[in-house]
Specification:
Elements: H1 2-31, H2 37-41
Length: 42
């Protein structure tokens, strides 16, 4: 039973960690662009 729960839980945990991390990476990459309005568009 624990393996079945972990089999469902691990992908959800990884997804929940990756979404804010992806947003932080997007902000960091767009923050290095020369114009400010790129950051506003993101």
């Amino acid at each position: 039973m624990n393996r079945a729960i972990l089999r469902l839980a691990v992908p959800t945990i990884v997804m929940n960690i990756s979404v804010p991390l992806l947003g932080a990476v997007d902000t960091a990459v767009v923050g290095h662009l020369p114009q400010v309005y790129y950051l506003g568009a993101a």
